[in-house]
Amino acid sequence: MLNNDRLLVQILLVALFGASLWVMAPFWSALFWGAVLAFASWPLMRLLTRWLNGRESLAAALLTVGWMVLVAAPLVWLGFNLADHVRDATVFIKDAQLEGLPEAPAWLGAIPLVGERLVGIWNSIDQQGAAMMVSLKPYLGQVGNWFLARSAQIGGGILELTLSIVFVFFFYRDGPRLAVFVHSLLERLIGQRATYYIELVAGTVQRVVNGVIGTAAAQAILALIGFLIAGVPGALVLGIATFLLSLIPMGPPLVWIPATAWLAWKGEYGMAMFLGAWGMFIISGVDNVLKPYLISRGGNLPLVIVLLGVFGGLIAFGFIGLFIGPTLLAVAYSLLTDWSKTQARVEDRRP
User: Fold this and answer.
1) In the prediction, which pLDDT does 227 show?
2) What's the pLDDT tens digit per position in 131-153?
3) pTM of the full predicted structure?
4) Dihedrals φ, ψ of 266, to 5°?
């Protein structure tokens, strides 16, 4: 009877645990982001708490408001602007389907070597009118749907990031107690190695955060240099926008591609070609080199493990996989390495 009662209690506990996970499932990404952000900025939290004479809640509230102003507000503003541009592009596609293309812009004909040919193609498309639009209609619809899907993804990502900043407050305030709870739980699961693996995960996440933020800062500085050389107005604002957008995949092109198009529209084709090449090979290219290096630096992980974790995590989990991928592979690699060393020591001790 006692065994049956114990089995029933275990089943109820598993069911309760599963139901809790089900309830929290919609918030896992935001919770993870909040934990990563709080962990990365924990030294700042300790410093501010010391300045405020140990008032943790006040320090947590001030830091959370600071993150809202520095991160959430600019991204929300940027999201609304992107949504407006997507709406304009959709309206243009619908107008093109009904009325044909507008008159070719003057700058199109002024492009060296290919300008006249591009104007001829533009006019031929417009002259064919409805027939051409009917043949292109399925493709235009796909383009419009693609724009709307990207807009929805950007809006969802911004909402998730904003929610994660709200969770940051609770991680700041209750961080030490959560750390003790996690440590005691892991000690019951894996014993004395709990501290080692906590430090392993913490170090990996810290390196990933440093890699993401360091790469974003490098891309922002390189973008600022390119904008200043090309003479793009508002170079500092565009550099800040590049830093913010560098935190999401394929973000920097949303800044330097419109700047390149603006230069071409102004007739500055040489600077437009320079900025396009600078953006493609320098601003966006540095992401594939600097980020894996910064993540692997200071750890015992092979660079190939980091590369697989970064790119595989992005493919498997989206942007959040940028943190999950390297962390999972780091823990798995360390577990296998530790297990192989332990087995080698055991075999050496055998007579």
Assistant:
1) 92
2) 555 565 565 556 556 655 555 55
3) 0.61
4) -80, -5
The residue among 294, 318, 321 whose CA lies nearest residue 310 is: 321
Q: How many domains does the chain have?
A: 1
Residue 250 Cα to chain centre, angstroms: 9
User: 65-74, 286-295, 341-350 — which is least confidently predicted?
Assistant: 341-350
Query: Does residue 346 belong to any structural domain of this protein?
Result: no
Q: Which of 179, 216, 208 is nearest to 327 (CA)?
A: 208
Q: Answer whether residue 349 is part of any domain.
A: no
- For residue 91, is it within any domain? yes
Q: Is 332 within the bounds of a domain?
A: yes
Q: Is the pLDDT of residue 301 over 90?
A: no
Helix (H, G, I), strand (E, B) or coil at 215: helix
Q: Taking residues 187-206, report their average pLDDT.
A: 76
With beta carbons less than 8 A apart as the criterion, state whether 160 and 30 touch. Answer: yes
Query: Which residue segment(s) compose the domain that 272 sits in?
Result: 29-338
- C-alpha Rg value of the chain to the nearest Å: 26
* Non-local CB neighbours of 306 within 8 Å, separated by 6+ positions: 292, 295, 296, 326, 329
